[in-house]
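so my prof wants the structure for this chain in the tokens format not the other one, which i didnt know existed until like an hour ago. anyway here's the sequence
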Amino acid sequence: MAGKGGASGWLSSWFARLRGTGGVDPTGLPLPPARLHRHDGYVSLQFRRGQTQSRMRGAEPDRLLIDYTRTMLAALLWQPCPARIGIVGLGGGSQVKFLHRHLAQARLEVVENHPGVIALRREFGIPDDDARLEVVLDDGARFVAARPGRYDLLLVDGYDASGIPAALSTPGFHAACRDALAPGGVMASNLHGDDPAPRIERLREAFGAEHVLVVEEEKMSNRVAFAWTGAAPDGRDACVAAVHAALPAPARRELAGVLERIARVLRARDAGSSACAS
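here's what i got, hopefully its the right format
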């Protein structure tokens, strides 16, 4: 099992580094090997050579290296002090490590469908399971559907070698994400691909168009979609200050720019809605 010590755990880790670990997912579908790649001080997770699924700076394993991972955590504007966070897709664990380190009040429940990815968790500095962290091998759609009303914050970043898996793209999955949120909860989803429009439309159908916000990453082909069940934050200074107050100084510094960027989008959205109403 992931997170266990001893000779068997060391050998599993060594073989995973050497050749990658594939197998089948919890639904019986075959999986490509999950491989570890080291280059110029970086550690990457790959399913195909030259295609990076997750990346970490070896000297700074808790840093959110990729822009969209910070943008997704702007969901804290909706929920500054989440008690329970669900995460679909472990990967290299960037957000898991950041949240486990900086949000002491939060319990993290992570689902990953690739046993080879979980086998590499120590290579990426992902903490062992404890009272605040649980990593589960399961189908992401099944995991979410089994946990109604559970999460203040739900992060969806599940990808395979071809992109977003079909099981995480259905109307039923998006409805299950909505139902998995506690009152006032928020979901943030990474949308990477040539045509995110169908997934955005499914989110709007599940949550209501007024409860979905999509922002683009300026330097990437990613978009981040926020969807929520209660009222949207207004993006004003007090809203941002509430998140800063809930975070230790290192986390505030790392998220300051993206919190202000999404707060500006929320202020503009609110102003536009007011203009339409008048």
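also thought this was worth mentioning. Confidence is low (pLDDT under 50) at residues 1-19.
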